[in-house]
Structure formats: C-alpha cells, structure tokens
Automatic annotation (TrEMBL):
Name of the protein this chain belongs to: Translation elongation factor
Listed GO MF terms: translation elongation factor activity
Record key words, sorted: Elongation factor, Protein biosynthesis
Species, as recorded: Sulfodiicoccus acidiphilus
InterPro entries the UniProt entry points to: Transl_B-barrel_sf (IPR009000)
Keyword hit for Protein biosynthesis: yes
Keyword presence, Protein biosynthesis: yes
Amino acid sequence: MMIRGYVATILSTNLDLGMEIGRKLGKLHEDEATKIFYRKREDHLLSVLFPTGLPSRLVEAAECLTVSSSFFLRLPDSPKPEDGELLLLSEASGIEGSVIASTQVAGKLLNGTSLAGKISQEVKEVSYETPDRGYIAVDKVFQVRGIGTVVLGFSSTQLGVHDRLLTLPQGKEVEVKSIQVLDEDQDAVGPGVRVGIALKNVRQEELRGLYSMVKPETKVVDSIRGKLVKFEWADYSPGMFHVVSSGSSSVASVEGQGEVEVRLNRRLPFSSRFLLLNLNARPKKPRVVGYLEA
C-alpha cells in the first residue's frame, strides 16, 4: 500500500516543553536544529517538526508551519513577548492546531483570536488529510556512493518513481530514480510524507541552493497580488519583508495598503496564503506582521 501521512509542527520557546510534546507523539529520529519525530502505523506516517532556537529562528519555524497540516503551540506558565509571536504565527498560518497551556495563562493571551477555543491541558494526536499541492519542500541535498544525488524533504504531492520534477531555483527538470521512507524503498508515496529521493543523472553541485521541487503543472510565482491581513499589534509600511509559504521563504518587496503588490527575490510554489514577517520590527513590536491572501 502507498504510504501517506501528515506533518505537524511544535511551537515552543522552551526546549524541554517542546521535546516533551514530541516524545508523546513519536520517536526522535533526526536530532538537529529542527527535531523530527516519527510515528508509523501501517501505511500512515506522522512526522512532527520541532524548530528549536526560537526566537532567533523565526523564519525556520514559519517554514515548518507552512509545510504542516496542524500545530501544537506550547505556552509556558509565564509567557514572554516571544511566546506572543508564536501565537501570532499560529494564527497567521490558518491551519488546525491546539494550544497546550493552563486555562488561566492561555485565556488572557488568546482572547480575541481564533485560537481561543483550542486550549488543552494535554497532547492529543489528531490526523488531518494532507492536500496535494504539487511540490516537495527540500531541506537537504547530498551524494550517496552507488546511488547518486539524494534529496530529503516533505512531499506535498503524490510522487512516484520516474516522475519528472522542476527544481527551484534552478528550473532544471529532474527524474525520480528511487524513493525511500524511513530507509525502506517505495514505488510511490502520497502527500505529507518525509521522503528521500534519489535523482537520475544530476550532480549535487547542479542543485546548489535547492529549496523546492514542483510538478511540471504546479504554478510557481515570483510576484503576488493580494490582500494583506495585518495584526493590530504589528507595524506595517511598504518595504522589505520575508514571505513564507510551502515550506520555503523569500525576501520580498511589498507595496501598497490593504491590496498589496509583492515582488519575491526567489520563486515559490503558489499558495492561497503567504505569511509576512518583518525581522527588523521596532522593539516591543512583533515580527509577525500578518498574512497575504492571494
């Protein structure tokens, strides 16, 4: 049977609290700056991402969130401003999720947000259908002796051996030679799965800077026109921002008020929602500005 799955992201400024949630949901397999926990049941794979190093790695946390179907926001008993930023990031994502915190702490912070009804004192595993968006978000490229160039990432599409993909930013067409999930060969995988993809007749150096691979029919954009939904606590004026979607990010110029024009420094798979971050926000102002509805 073809493996399918879904991806969830843990958001927490506290390493121990985040790791506690991860261990309840799965087994730690990749112990790097972004921790990855897995739980496999028959033909279904749950992948849980925990981007550590917050608040400095806010862009990486947003990238994890935009490749996920759900989130777990863990608030400490004494929240700080950076915890409020993660709350805004969760709100901006538009995906399902839960807030793990005491009712007293969370009630005050979440008042007036869409997360107010999602408070829980315990971690409950949930399963969401992962839609097919036609791309693979890539986080590693390396060479394996006897196999060739291998790409690691998360599938947001159904993928099979011999499928052809276009690489970003190169725009190079590549062919899937083989697929592995948790070191087991697969003929095909569904959306929401952590995959290792061996590519045919392409060298690692040809894929320098690779961040995404898309199906030939997938729409890719270098500019966006849409509605800016800004959080009332954030500052906004036209200028340079980080735009995040589909597990990738780009520096971008944003012009206008309400209806805005966005020019990306690098192409991204099209999405109906793009997160907007200002890493140079004024002191005491959140770096999560809001989101764009395209």
